[in-house]
Predict the structure.
Amino acid sequence: MSYLSSNQLKQYEDEGFVSPINIFSKEKANEIRNEIESIEKEIPGELDNSGRYNAHLISPLLDEVTHHPKILDAVQSLIGEDILVCGTTLFIKNPHEKGFVSYHQDAKYIGLEPHNWVTAWIAITDSNEHNGCMRMWSGSHKDNLKDHDQMFNEGNLLTRGQTVNNVPRKETTPLILEAGQMSLHHPTVVHGSDLNKSNDRRIGFVIQSYIGTNVKQVIGKNSVQLARGVDNYNFHEKIKRTKLLMNEKDLEMKKKENDNLQEIFYKGAPKKGQL
């Protein structure tokens, strides 16, 4: 069992995140990268823009990561033993592209209440300050949800370019991860990331999010997978895990789920962005 230690639990409580956590080897991470890039090659555009959501529904290796027992052990330490998977996202920053993530809180537009959920960020490649790792505003999860401007700005990897103003960047903590490591962060901690200034891709696979079975989707609908335990609430439709790479029915399911997700992310927005 790989439950979080008392020190890790204290870090999460005090700072709103815990990092780094070892999950699998660099060799395994590279195998996963190869599968991601085989999808990109086989079906150009499949993982671009809104296609980057729910890639675990068409990739057996990303499905394996999503249901990895080490990750679920750590998540169980934070939200309890009944765990649902409520979507995933690929955050890929190609070298010399203007991809960044503005400072924001995950809980602002995602519609998951109460906040008995956690986001897992898994490094498929090394993630560091040079290639645009996540940065956390330590302790910001203890406040209420903050106002976010909707910037819709070019290069921003968030749907609306949602941005918390006046974040003290010099006080933020970089989450430096080696390929195969992960971080966990709270729904309301303020975080963002900078440009990739390296000569290689920076790939993060994010389970956004693992939710307790008591969590509802209050502004739309998400289908979920039961990752661990039992679901006595049945607030969400259940979907199966994939066994085949790029299976036609799974591709249709992914598109359906991503269409639903767009409705959630843009609820009440004045327009839609490119993502």
